[in-house]
Predict the 3D structure of the following.
Amino acid sequence: MTLLRALAAVLALLVAGPAVRAADPRLVPDVSSRAIDIQYSFTGEELLLFGAILYPGQRLPDDRADIVVVLKGPVRPIVLREKRRVAGMWVNASSIRMRTSPGFYAIGSSRPIDKLVDERTAAIFELGLNNLSMSPTGFSEARKLQRFEGGLIDLYRRMGLFYENPAAVEITEGVLYRARIPVPARVPVGTYRAETYLISRGRVLAVASRDVQIRKAGFERFVALAAQRHGFLYGLAAVALSLLLGYAASAIFRRR
């Protein structure tokens, strides 16, 4: 009898599972541009993340739902070094290697993150600059790691590569949302993920994402491809161009 009850319980879960999942709202996200081209005149761009919230039966809940949008990428390893003054000279005192440091991270929300989810949920979904998981290699003291991560976040903030705005998302009539994310001129090229999170009562109800390509175009793309595919010839050309410019400059100054 116990076995029959257990089987019945499992069957009920299997049948009810899709129904429970179907009762959750869905996100339909999009971005204003799937590809951003970087040329010599590129001074930055503003990317619009927008979309709609689809509720089951098209009935809006009584509780207010919030939206968090994240644009991040490309993930790459990075070595952080700390300099100290020794005998009047600045030298590298210590270093830490991060395996999964994003070259760009921007987050916007309809309300501050700490008002939407607890610390554990924010850490799981990496919501917020202080919750980025950069995967440091090797053993390191907690204080040292915190100091290095804080230094990196502060540096990237000043460069415009890390961005956080707790009021960036606008929600219209509880269904439509939009947020503008600034993309600076020095943004690294690569594949980015535009992620959208629907949050209610401290729980993430739905997650959706879109890919965004940031790439070099025009003469910059030609130079970058030449450096990658023909490194030796590119080096010779760079040296020859430097010598030519130096000779031209000296000739001009001699005439004066």
Notes: The radius of gyration is 25 Å. The chain has one domain: 20-215. Residues 20-215 form a domain with the Immunoglobulin-like fold (CATH 2.60.40.1930).
